[in-house]
Amino acid sequence: MKKLIVVILTFFCVVSVSAHAVFIETALKGTKGKSHTVKVVYGEPDEHEERSKWWWYKEGMQITLTLTKPDGSKESLTTTAQADHLLATFIPDQDGVYHVSLQQDTERKEGAKTQYQINAVATIQVGNATVGNTASNIGNELLVYADERSYKNKKEVSLIFYEKGKPAPHSFIQIIAPSGWIRWIETDEQGVARFTPEWTGKYFAEASKREKVAGQDFEEYSRASSMSFEVK
Q: Hey, what's the signal peptide range on this chain (predicted)?
């Protein structure tokens, strides 16, 4: 990602940082009866690393995505390895809101005190129906959810941050805009984060949480999550 000029403004900042994360990249709109492509990528939203450089992926590792249909039914999507992404496809058979999600514990080295977990979600609208537009259909332990199918530029956006199925208050979400700026926003008591977008296009949201654990051969879980949403 291009270097960013550091600017500090009220309620947000733009910083020169790396936004490396695991993303599910896909068109946010699909067509019933037509094959829909989904990619798992690693890097920054506009710059993907070669798969051989992914720290969390081992050659031959099986990565399965969960497809949640508008009616709440689920099926597994098997990915195949490409040069800089993992590829999966599905054919929508209903109108409504589909969710494709990934939750994966990474390989932990012997003696390591932290277990890392990757979470990523993509939401796909098929037709005009709103059925399936609910976070409860997604089982990820860490999740940023867009409660609208799309948002309007210059109008307030609300995102809900969930940890283990419950809203996560006073937590920070990183927003990456199409222009390249990065804004950190804090959730309120209900786990809702709000901001007003300045550009149209696809936005990305990232969040992370650490949790102390007992009774394991490691000391903490470190979870990260990503998703994308559209501003028109």
A: 1-21
Instruction: Measure CA of the first residue to CA of the last residue in the chain; give whole Å.
Output: 23
The pLDDT value given to residue 60: 85
115 with 220: CB under 8 angstroms? yes
As a whole number of angstroms, the longest Cα–Cα distance in the chain is 51
CATH class of 7-231: mainly beta
227 vs 203: CA distance, rounded Å = 9
Encode pLDDT of 23-67 as tens digits: 999 999 999 999 999 999 999 877 899 999 999 999 889 999 999
C-alpha to C-alpha distance for 42 and 85, rounded to whole angstroms? 7
The encoded tokens of residue 3 equal: 């270097």
Q: Is the pLDDT of residue 14 over 80?
A: no
Judged against a pLDDT cut of 50, whether residue 147 lies above it is answered with: yes
Q: Is 3 helix (H, G, I), strand (E, B) or coil?
A: coil
Supply 231's token pair: 């501003």
Burial 187-198 (b: 16+ CB within 10 A, else e): beeebebebebe
- Residues whose CB is less than 8 angstroms from the CB of residue 212 and which lie 6 or more positions away in sequence, other chains included: 219, 220
Of all residues in the chain, the percent with pLDDT exceeding 70 is 91
Domain boundaries, the chain: 7-231
Amino acid making up residue 208: S
Interstrand relation of 21-26 and 36-44 (parallel, antiparallel or unpaired): antiparallel
Element counts in the chain: helices (H) and strands (E): 0, 20
